[in-house]
Every structure is written in C-alpha cells, then in structure tokens.
Amino acid sequence: MADERFEIILTTDRTMMSNHHGKEFIGFMATGPPIGMPESLWMWIAAPKMKTDRLGRPWQAPYAMRKLEALLQDHGYKAAIIDPDHLHKHLDHAKILMLSHHDYFALCPPSSEWWLVTKREPVNARSFRRLMEKPEIRRAKRNGLKIIVGGPAGWQWLYKTDLWERWGVDTVVDGEGERIVLDLVEKVYSGEPLPRYVFVGPNDVPMIEEIPKIKHASVNGLVEIMRGCPRHCKFCSVTLRPLRYIPLEMIEEEMLVNVREGVKGGILHSEDVLLYGARGLRLNPDALIKLHKLARKHLETIAWSHASLAAIKNAEEEYGLISKLREIICEDGVQDYWGVEVGIETGSVKLAKKIMPAKAAPYPAEKWPDVVEDAFAIMHENNLIPAATLILGLPEEEPDDVVKTAELLDRLKPYRSLIVPMFFVPMGVLKDKDWFTTFKVSDEHIEVMRRCLWHSVRWAEEIIEKFYLKGWSKFI
Ligand code: SF4
Fold it and tell me: Per DSSP, what are the bridge partners of residue 387?
C-alpha cells in the first residue's frame, strides 16, 4: 500500500483526459457548447472516459503531463497522473495537485469562436469548473494541499483572478514547465512560500537533455519531435520559444512506450513537422525521411500535428518530398491518407506582410495567396488532409483584408480540406466577463464564415466516407 500513495497528483478535466475515441479531430467538439443534445451525451461523444487501473492512473494521458510525471518520478518523487474521477482516492494524503490544460476557460480559438457565435459557454470550461469544485479538491485544499497550474493555457489565469483566488490556486506557471517545476516542488517540501506567478521566458526553457522521456502512453500516441518555430508571426506565442529538435533515439523510445502500452498509432507533434532537422528554414529531407521510416517501423498509423503551407510547397517543389513521405506513410496500405493542421490565417498580402512576414518563406510574403493555393493542391494530390484555420479580427485588419480572404477561399474550392475561421480576441477584451457579447463581428467576417462553412460541409462528406470512417472501420 505504501507505494500506492502518491504525494504529487497531476490531473486535468475530462475534456483533456480522454482519447476522443482515438480520433483527435473529435476532441474539437469539446471546445463547443452542447448543441441539440444533453451535455452528458455531447461529452461522451467528444471526450469519453479514459480506461484506468485500480488506482485511477489513466491508460493514456496528455503528453505534456506525461513529461512532468516522468520528470518528477526521475527525481524520486511519488508522483502520478490520476484520472479526474479517481482523485478522491489520493487527495487526502497528497501534498501537491498539478493541473494542466489547453484551454481552462475556453478563451482560445476555437472555443472562443463557438462562444462568440452561440453565446454559450463551451463544455471544456464547464468541465474544468466542475473539476475545481469537486468536494475532494475543496476538502484537500482546506487541509493544506498546494495547487499549481500550468500548461499551454497557463496565461488564462491572469484574466480570471477571481477564480484563481476562489479555488485557492497557489502558483500559476506560464510557459514550459520542466525547469521550474522541480524548484516549486522543493519549495513545498521545505515549507517555503510559493510564488504566485512564474513566467518562463525564452532563456528559462529546458535544453534537450533536460527534457525527460515519457514513461507511459500519451493521448493517441502523440510524440513531440521538436519545440519552437522560427517564423515569428506576431500573434503567436510559440515564436518566443527557441528551436529544439528531439533526437531520433528519444522519439523512438517514446513511440515504443506507447506501442508497448497498446497505443499503436502516433501523432508526430511539432509546430511545423516539415522543419524537423531544418537549418533555419532550409528543409532537411534526410532527417524527415529517417523520421518517417522510424515511425513507419513502429506505428500502425501516422499523423502530423501541424505543418506550414510554405514548407509543404517547398518540400514538394524542391525535393518531391511530400510524395516521398506519402510513399513511406502509406507504404503497407494500412493507411491511405494522413491528417494535419495548417494555418492560412489571411488571404491579404498587405496584412500577411505586417503580421507574419516569414510565414511564406522561402517565398516572398507578396506570394502568400499563391503559396496557400499551391500547398493545398499538393496536399490534395497526396491525400494529406488539412484542417486549416483562418484568423479573423487580427490587429490592423481592415475590411479589404477580409475581402481578400474571401477571394482566397474561392480559389481553394477544388481542394479537399476543412477550413475553420477563428477570431483573434484581444487580451484586453477577455478581461470583461461578458466579452463574447460585446465583441463585434463585421459583415465581411460573416461572409468569410459562411464561405468556410460551405467549403467544409462540401468536403466533409467525402472526407468522412472515403477516408475517415473507412480508416476507422479497420479498428472496430
Ligand atoms: S508559423 Fe505557426 S507556429 Fe510558427 S510562429 Fe507562425 S503561427 Fe506560430
């Protein structure tokens, strides 16, 4: 029984602690409010419960939490990720509760956009609130439990100081946690006061050798291949992080952790998978081919998290690389397509030059709409299915910029893809509790949203019938 008592519990709410039926894309439903059905059914579709062991340790857990769990265990702490339904088994004797989330309060796109359009709070924020109000957490807090929150949405607590206070959160970590978290834990164990807020700047992020290897399965086999992005778009926080490539040996070990625990497919995670091993923005075909052969050797199915449209065009036109990677990925016929998220952001050259001058590189920013269309054509020919985002309401956006985006959407009609518009909501607006009622949506924005909807509805049918459900049927 002694080693079944964990002193540090890592957890999150159900919308994060789920593998979304093995389909990452279904997880997007957790960013919306329940529409046309009870919330419990919506939650079951978007974020079904995760299988756990007797102690409540989940089969699969969010990758970033697996990293912290491994780090703490490597340093001798009795730490474990616990499913939110099993917290009552542990919190009475735990010292620290650590929380992580992609979107604690539904302030990031696409949650914020659902909220704007429907005026209803998305289920991820509701689910997180239910977690924080759980009697076992409240009781443990009264008995001295320290609560540390972080993850990609750590910044959101700065706009929810009332809840920060009400739920007794001791420390908010904003940025990559591997370096700072051990200091915080030491402080708790030695009885020192915790800082209220820690910002992890570019100089405080962990080096490759400080990043631990996961010890247990990540959600849907996600494995990180690099961190950071060199394109420096003005609206993106990833750009603050320096570039680090994860060595192939470490990627392989993590893939094998997943496979051994029964997660046979994998998602290669990067802000731009095609920049793996790149020298600046110069692609490294050898590194990419080795990476994909490694993934093919160990995984049944392979997906990419994100790629840039400029790199897709450059990879195919200069090296024939998308076709080569397709041959590797689809080699044994188990899969005949793969998915990726891409960012169109805007169709306006004027706006692209102002806010994302390097997004089109190695092509000039003036060519951005052509880069987008060429990359879409390449993806279409190679069965690489993009879920693309556009950003509306960017700083300095004028009505003419939105018209240019609508025109670009017309050019993208022939290419198989889903296109999702998102709103850039300025941080200042988020401070207002009712921000989603005061934020103004223009007629041009509505026209772009309408064209995105028609585009996506038109292609969704083919994607679901020819690819998505066909692939799924092999596993059920
Ligand atoms: S290309 Fe994507 S990840 Fe990189 S800085 Fe721009 S928006 Fe961020």
Answer: 341, 418
User: Going by C-beta distance under 8 Å and a sequence separation of 6 or more, which residues neighbour residue 461?
Assistant: none
Beta carbon of 239 within 6 Å of any ligand 1 atom: yes
Assess contact for 118 and 35: CB atoms under 8 A. Answer: yes
- What token pair was written down for 467? 């690819």
Sign of CA dihedral 284, 250, 74, 188: positive
Extract the tokens encoding 158.
Answer: 């700065």
Domains in the chain with CATH codes: 2-204 (3.40.50.2300), 217-473 (3.80.30.20)
Beta strands in 22-138 (DSSP E): 79-81, 96-100
| C-beta 160 within 6 A of ligand 1 | no
* pLDDT score for 428: 60
Beta strands in 211-336 (DSSP E): 222-224, 226-227, 244-245, 266-269, 302-304
CA of 11 to the centre of ligand 1 (A): 28
The pTM for the full model equals 0.92
Cα separations in angstroms, 3 against 7, 92, 338: 10, 15, 42
Render pLDDT for 98-146 as a digit per residue (tens, 0 to 9).
999 999 999 988 888 888 888 899 999 999 999 999 999 999 999 999 9
Closest residue by Cα to atom 3, ligand 1, is: 271
Residue 462, pLDDT > 90, answer: no
**Sheet strands (E) in 324-433:** 338-345, 384-392, 418-423
Q: Among 192-196, 435-439, 458-462, name the one with the lowest average pLDDT.
A: 435-439
